[in-house]
Design brief:
The chain is an alpha/beta fold and about 190 residues long. It is about 45% helix and about 20% strand. The protein is built from 8 helices and 7 strands; from the N terminus they run H-E-H-E-H-E-E-E-H-E-H-H-H-H-E. A hairpin with a 4-residue loop joins strand 3 and strand 4 (about 110-115). Helix 1 (about 10-30) packs across helix 2.
Length: about 190
């Protein structure tokens, strides 16, 4: 006897969003499209970006840059977004190799460098990723949000106690980003997770 279907509203919403983003990428008709996914912590950006990367509709592979790898510490939301824009998105748009350095959270310093090939598609995801400047460098822009309690629960399940003491400070940076840049208003696709 087959196991009963267990509803997964979060997974189902991400599946629907992946299909919408995949359609938007296909409609761009570019060989190296850029997707920028922004949203609040715990909303599902990283999970969505990973699904989009697995479902990438082009024959060539896609590169995925998670801003969690770039933010220079817990107070670095804005700086991480600037690094991604200036070191990755702008060069990619000009057909140049972009370089970003991984932030070592334990040592609190930059670590090894990574190259981004301008001939390949690119997904950049993270809080703060979508600004007027980055939207102009993207082919598909996405905003992801959800109820605060659900987001907080998912974020703390994912990152544990290491994030708990920084939640309010990070949320304040998200609020400042939203007030300054209106990322939801810049997004072609808006996803609300449960």
């Amino acid at each position: 006897m087959p196991a009963p279907h267990t509803p997964d509203p979060f997974g189902e919403r991400l599946g629907e969003a992946t299909a919408r983003i995949r359609d938007a990428i296909t409609a761009v008709a570019a060989s190296n499209p850029v997707v920028v996914i922004d949203g609040r912590s715990g909303a599902g950006k990283s999970s969505l970006a990973a699904r989009v990367a697995r479902a990438w509709p082009l024959r060539t592979p896609v590169q995925l840059l998670a801003l969690d790898s770039v933010y220079p510490g817990w107070d670095g939301l804005e700086r991480g977004a600037e690094i991604a824009r200036e070191s990755v998105l702008r060069p990619h748009g000009r057909g140049l190799i972009g370089i970003w350095r991984r932030w070592d959270w334990e040592r609190e310093e930059e670590a090894e460098a990574h190259a981004v090939d301008p001939a390949l598609g690119l997904i950049v995801e993270g809080c703060g990723a979508l600004t007027p400047a980055s939207a102009g460098l993207a082919d598909v822009t996405v905003w992801v949000d959800g109820p605060r309690d659900s987001r907080r629960r998912r974020a703390l399940e994912r990152d544990g106690d290491g994030f708990r003491s920084h939640w309010d400070m990070w949320a304040a940076q998200e609020d400042a980003h939203i007030a300054r840049h209106d990322p939801q208003g810049l997004a072609q696709l808006s996803i609300v997770t449960p």
